[in-house]
Structures are given as C-alpha cells and as structure tokens.
C-alpha cells in the first residue's frame, strides 16, 4: 500500500509579530498604515456581505448571487489597493451596482427615498444596513489613503455606488417583505 504524503502549509508566518506587514509588492509597512486600514475595512465589508448573503431569505437568490459577484470583485479591489502587480479592478462592478440599484428602485413605489428611514426592519435588511455603514467607513479610509497616494477614481466610485446599492437593497427587502418602515421624525 502506498503512503499518501500530505503537505500542510502553516498560515502563521510570524512575519507580522512586530506590528508590520507586507503589501503585495513586498513593501513592509506598519499595520496601522493607511494602506492596511483601507484594505482591512474592505475585508470587513466583504465579511459583512457574507453575513448578508447568509441571511437573505430564499426568495432573494438573485440578490445573493449579486452579492457573491460583489465579494469576488472586492478581493480584486483589495489586491489593487495592496499594489499587486498587474491587478486592476475593471468597471464591470460599477455597472452592475448601478444596474441592480436602478432595477430595485423601479420595483418600489412611493417617496421612500425622500424620508429618513430608521435602520433595521426585517433581519436581512438590518444586516444590509450594517454592511452599508461598514462600506461608508471603508470608503472614508480609501479617501484618506488617496490623500497620500494615487488611487484610481473607479475605486472610490465603486465604494460610493456600493453603499448606495446596499441602502436601496435594504429598502427593497423591507418593501418586498411588506415591512412598514419606521420614519425618523425631524
């Protein structure tokens, strides 16, 4: 009988034990550097999108698929921010976000966009609210990074459209599930 050899790669490199890490181009920076703040916020956003996808009701399979596409594209966005060689995000995600957002808006009636809606509602809508606020934080951190280094405008456009999409999706989920929105009184 032949023995099977299994190679196990240890994820723990210990190279970051002193508080620094490497960008994809090999440059080492403190983990508190704006690059890592932005990349970490995108990573957190991607994780929250995973929570959203896991909690969407079965009838929202098309939106779940859109979120999976967004998650994959966010990995490319992070790689570009990390200065990975020959990796650039295309404008496909921007087009998808604009198309999906407009599609969901057309399905809703009334002046929902002219009111201040309290976050929450149905559980999946509440998760979308969390993802939206994390997206806004990620966008702010990329803006700070852009003050120090050249960031392609498409990255900021995508993050801005993504937070818009997440808000519209949250409203649409509540609308579709017949939730009566709670409106903030001025």
For CATH, the homologous superfamily of the domain at 32-101 and 118-176 is named as: Cobalamin adenosyltransferase-like
CATH architecture field of the domain at 32-101 and 118-176: Up-down Bundle
Biggest sheet: strands side by side, in what order?
A: 1-2
| The CATH topology of the domain at 32-101 and 118-176 | Hypothetical Protein Ta1238, Chain: A
The rounded distance between the terminal residues' Cα atoms is: 76 Å
Structural class: mainly alpha
Q: What kind of sheet is the major sheet?
A: 2 strands, antiparallel
Determine the mean pLDDT.
89
Q: What general form does the structure show?
A: globular
Tally of separate helices: 5
CATH class of the domain at 32-101 and 118-176: Mainly Alpha
- β-strand percent reads under 5%
Oligomer: single chain
Q: Secondary-structure map with pairings?
A:
Blueprint: E1 20-22, E2 28-30, H1 34-55, H2 61-81, H3 92-107, H4 123-146, H5 153-176
Helix pairs in contact: 1-2, 1-4, 3-5, 4-5
Which properties best describe this structure?
single chain, 186 residues, mainly alpha, Hypothetical Protein Ta1238, Chain: A, 5 helices, 2 strands, 3% strand, globular
Could you describe the 3D structure shown?
This protein has 186 residues and is mainly α. Helix content is 58%, strand content 3%. It has a domain at 32-101 and 118-176: Hypothetical Protein Ta1238, Chain: A, CATH 1.20.1200.10. It contains five helices and two strands, in the order ββααααα. Strands 1-2 form a two-stranded antiparallel sheet. Helix 1 runs antiparallel to helix 4 (123-146). The longest helix is centred in the C-terminal third of the chain and has 24 residues, at 123-146. It is globular, with a radius of gyration of 19 Å. The mean pLDDT is 89.
